[in-house]
Amino acid sequence: MAKQKKFEIFPIINIIILSLFGVITLYPCLNVVAKAFSSQGYVISGQVYLLPKDFQLDTIKYVLTQPEFLNAFKISVVVTIFGTLFAMLLTVLTAYPLSKPSLRGRKFFLGIFVFIMLFNAGMVPNYILYRSLHLTNTIWALIFSGAFSVFNLFIVKNYYESLPETVEEAARIDGASNLVTLFRIVLPMSMPVIATVTLFYGVGYWNNYFAGVMYITDPSLKSLQQYLYDLITLAMNTTDTSGNAIMDAESVANVTGEVVRCATIVVSTVPILVLYPFLQKYFVKGVTIGSVKG
Questions:
Q1: Which of 24, 44, 115, 224 sits 20 to 30 Å CA-CA off 161?
Q2: Burial zone of 206 (CB within 10 Å; 0-12 exposed, 13-18 middle, 19+ buried)
Q3: Are 86 and 80 contacting, i.e. CB atoms less than 8 angstroms apart?
Q4: Whole-angstrom Cα distance, residue 156 to residue 88?
Q5: Amino acid 12: pLDDT
Q6: Which pairs from 89-95 meet CB under 8 Å and 24+ separation?
Q7: Could you say which DSSP state residue 220 is in?
Q8: Whole-prediction pTM value?
């Protein structure tokens, strides 16, 4: 009986501890959202915690009308869309032949990719490479920097290996080439893992600020995350990244440095929050099936 009572108590204690960790994790996010929609007086006095006080949308409107924010948002959207498409094309075209045991030198190529995943040249060689190719201060630097992930490659490769070989053999008997088989037969059967890896790449591009810090100095090419990085790390209370006045207190109400930072963070996360629910169902299925074979 004593053992049975301990067994029943443990799940309750476990739920309580995990719930506390969940609240601790969510609090900073909820606090930022609350500050973004609260009046500046309550934010400055430190009275905003989980819920907005004196709800207002002036700061959100202010952020959405800033030229620097709009330009950074546009750069991030362009880089995320085209970078994800380019990365997925490279990943799919590389993973498909590596999933075939009949490929000559397959173990050698897989060994190279494993080595690349474990060891990286580092920041300095990468910067020298991009500079020698004249890619610094170009949008291509932001796209190429995240264009390939060995981890994602192995997820897609393992998923391809789990597909029935008889379907591809039937396509070859009908005269289909390797590319036709890949794009018309294999890819439609691989939508769970394709959606999962696409989301991985998309989130990676959207959240990537380090590539901008490394390769971009032109303000017109700064991504949204680099804009946020500058906005937060420079501790701007009255000036923006260009050194201009961040607010005109007589013409714009409820706009201060702290509120603007919170509102900018909230607005920048909206696209990912909108996209994520549509692809969430593919996460577990895609990764689980892709991890069956090594």
A1: 115
A2: buried
A3: no
A4: 10
A5: 85
A6: 90/147, 90/148, 91/148, 91/149, 91/152, 91/153, 91/156, 91/197, 91/201, 92/156, 92/182, 92/187, 92/194, 93/182, 94/148, 94/153, 95/153, 95/154, 95/156, 95/157, 95/160
A7: G
A8: 0.79
The tokens of 59 are what?
């700061």
Residue 224 CA to residue 21 CA, distance in Å, equals 30
Q: How far apart are CA 72 and CA 41, in angstroms?
A: 29
Kindly state the tokens that stand for 226: 């680099």
Would you say how long the chain is, in residues? 294
For each of the domains in the chain, give its residue range(s) and CATH number, in order of start: 57-294 (1.10.3720.10)
Distances (CA, A) of 11 to 5, 48, 156: 11, 34, 37
Answer for the pair 84, 198: CB distance below 8 angstroms, yes or no. yes
**pLDDT, tens digit, 9 for 90 and up, residues 98-119:** 998 888 888 999 999 989 888 8
What's the CA dihedral at 211, 217, 218, 223 to 10 degrees? 30
* Average pLDDT over the chain, rounded to an integer: 81
